[in-house]
Specification:
This protein is mainly α. Helix content is 93%, strand content 0%. It has 1 helix and no strands. The longest helix has 80 residues. The protein is rod-shaped and about 120 Å long. The relative contact order is 0.04.
């Protein structure tokens, strides 16, 4: 009976040690998860920013294409209007 009591005491002591380690590791795990969530949020924000920049570039490209076409037509019209002066 004494032998079983000693064995139980050793296991209870080991259990306490393991619980303390688990609590410490859980705190570190929560800190790591918080950092990962923050890093993911940062990456998402950068992604949205680059998508916005790309959208604005494509929007500007369309506007400039229309302007270039209009100016080329104006240049062609001016060339035809002034072809006799050359």
């Amino acid at each position: 009976v004494d032998w079983l009591g000693e064995e139980r005491a050793e296991k209870v002591a080991r259990l306490r040690i393991v619980k303390k380690k688990k609590v410490k590791l859980d705190a570190e795990r929560r800190e790591a998860l918080a950092w990962l969530k923050l890093a993911n949020k940062h990456v998402r924000a950068l992604s949205w920013l680059w998508q916005y920049y790309l959208w604005k570039c494509l929007e500007n490209d369309e506007q400039f294409t229309v302007q270039v076409e209009h100016l080329e037509k104006d240049l062609e019209d001016e060339g035809e209007w002034n072809k006799d002066d050359i």
